[in-house]
């Protein structure tokens, strides 16, 4: 009788685990690259499992899927983009307007490789420059149209978005679950809250040594426990 109870309990645990795995979801927000406005009615398809959905009025979406899946995004007036989900949490996805001066083809800002992200930052910087070279007029000259024009404004705004993504990646790759749990112990639900509340700044992460980061996590956890 005891053995039957054990088998029954094990079976229940297996069914529960299967249910949890099958219920995995990807959550995200869709933005316009130029304006940072959230986009609604974006068609989102997970090509790994053929599930699909559309973004809500606030740009948010939830779709069945997991880390390492690929999402295809389509919206009227925007280039078709593909997002690779490489980490847990809410994914920020930026879409590029069709025929925009700043084009980011096939992939979205948050899903670019690091080298491609660097390339797009340099491209945006070049498009925002007010200085031109001219062989006919001799040497360098300042172009008011490039300085105050729409294309330059779009490029400058894109630089901010691209550089912010670059900075966020460094923080994400440094302030990891693995590092935190190697120093302190807490449940997953509290870990997410702790990371959100005490996420370090890019400026700190950029210059922090290993011992600085360790001290920061321990000190932040002490404050977290007092709440």
TrEMBL record:
Q: Which SUPFAM superfamilies match?
A: Carboxypeptidase regulatory domain-like
InterPro entries in alphabetical order: CarboxyPept-like_regulatory (IPR008969)
What this protein is called in its record is Carboxypeptidase-like regulatory domain-containing protein
The organism is Sphingobacterium hotanense
Q: What is the lineage of its organism?
A: Bacteria, Pseudomonadati, Bacteroidota, Sphingobacteriia, Sphingobacteriales
């Amino acid at each position: 009788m005891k053995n039957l109870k054990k088998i029954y309990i094990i079976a229940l645990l297996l069914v529960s685990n299967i249910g949890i795995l099958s219920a995995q979801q990807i959550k995200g927000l869709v933005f316009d690259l130029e304006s940072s406005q959230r986009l609604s009615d974006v068609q989102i398809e997970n090509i790994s499992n053929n599930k699909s959905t559309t973004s809500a009025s606030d740009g948010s979406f939830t779709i069945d899927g997991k880390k390492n899946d690929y999402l295809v995004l389509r919206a009227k007036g925007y280039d078709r983009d593909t997002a690779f989900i490489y980490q847990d949490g809410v994914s920020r996805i930026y879409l590029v307007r069709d025929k925009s001066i700043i084009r980011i083809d096939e992939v979205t800002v948050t899903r670019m490789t690091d080298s491609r992200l660097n390339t797009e930052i340099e491209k945006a910087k070049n498009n925002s420059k007010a200085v031109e070279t001219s062989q006919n007029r001799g040497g360098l000259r300042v172009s008011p149209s490039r300085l105050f024009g729409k294309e330059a404004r779009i490029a400058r705004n894109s630089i901010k978005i691209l550089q912010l993504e670059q900075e966020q990646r460094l923080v994400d790759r440094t302030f990891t679950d693995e590092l935190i749990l190697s120093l302190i112990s807490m449940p997953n639900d509290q870990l997410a809250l702790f990371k959100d509340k005490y996420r370090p700044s890019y400026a700190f992460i950029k210059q922090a040594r290993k011992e600085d980061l360790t001290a920061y996590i321990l000190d932040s956890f002490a404050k977290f426990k007092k709440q």
